[in-house]
Specification:
With 67 residues, this protein is mainly α. 66% of the residues lie in helices and 0% in strands. It is globular, with a radius of gyration of 12 Å.
Length: 67
Amino acid sequence: MMNNPMNVMQLLQQLQRNPIQVLQSRGFNVPQNLNSPNDIIQHLMNSGQISQAQYNNARQMAARFKR
C-alpha cells in the first residue's frame, strides 16, 4: 500500500499518462484497445475484476483529491 503522499501523486501522474500500463502492472487484465477511462472501468466491472463497491470507493477517494 502506498502511504507516502509523493508515491500517491506519482501513481496518479502515471495513471494519467498510461492507465492501462499501470493497471496491468498491478495485476489487472486490461486489453490495449480500450480508448477511454469509462471503457476501462466498464471492462474491469464486467470481467469481475472490480466490484461496484470498489468503484464507488475509488470515486470517493478521487473526489477528496480534487478539493
